[in-house]
Amino acid sequence: MNATGFEPAPDQDTDPASAPGRIVLLTTSHRVAPGLLSWPAWQVLHGADRVLCADGTHPQLPYLREAGIAVDETSPTAEELVAACAGGHAVVVVATGEGEPALTDGLARLAGSGRLQMPELELLPASYDLPGARLLDLVQVMDRIRAECPWSSRQTHEGLAKYGIEEAYELVEAIEEGDRDELREELGDVLLQVVFHSRIAEEDPDAPFSVDDVAAGIVAKLIHRHPHVFGDETASTPEEVKAHWLRTKAIEKQRTSVTEGIPLGQPALALAAKLASRVRTAGLDVPLPTTEGLGYELLALATHAEAEGIDPEAALRAAARAYRDAIREAEAARAAE
Known about the structure:
Blueprint: E1 22-27, H1 39-47, E2 50-53, H2 61-66, E3 72-73, H3 78-85, E4 90-94, H4 101-113, E5 120-125, H5 134-148, H6 157-177, H7 180-201, H8 211-224, H9 227-230, H10 238-253, H11 268-282, H12 294-307, H13 312-336
Parallel strand pairs: 1-4, 1-5, 2-3, 2-4
Helix pairs in contact: 5-7, 6-7, 11-12
């Protein structure tokens, strides 16, 4: 017996009658509260001959011991682990955050050598990430960056405002270009803006709020504005859904004008189309200004596009991209000459 408390692995030729036993590598998610393990995991833990863990500070250990499971804080080699299973014993290894790569690599080498009769090997996830669990990682990373990064720790809502606009435009461009990889990346950049601003908001001395408050607010809004999903109302068409949305929104906001809530700082074509949409939805008859000038001609084009179901901003961007491509072709032709 060596210092780790394991016998050397018996050679298959000298101990042919030895039952190989079973090794269970138990993995857990750090995004799930410690102690919340699956029923198969608890069954395996209670039925094991030995439970091992290389990390004495593993967050699961207090809960395992509270449940009456003895855990040996040790880090055996692959050979020592195989030896511990000899005679039909079941050994559970509670994996650390890295997943025990050295141990699994060692077991793979032993299995490939053919020198030993290998135990049954099983990977058992004891807890799983729920959808959205990686958002917890993002919040944790943002907390650390805010505390330790010289640049991030000094940022304010006002200072970050321009980045929110830039990231939104880059997201729109990725959508219009149809680039899936770029779309995923840009969605992450937009999400970062939400988490960053929420983290800054936690430090406000007068009216602090957190990312949880932000999420709770939008969840409540979505539920309230979808009574056909979460309530007793019905909606079978997109038009009925939009009617529900506008009705509940009007009750929430208690606005005196359809123009309230329209940001005037948005691009001019989008602004014109939004105003036209509000007028049309409200059933108002508001003639366009008759003043002459390029701006009023563009306003008429934007309202006409909105009435036809065309996003004038997107249409102009598409035309601008075509113009950009034509410019590049002309430049290439000049260079070739």
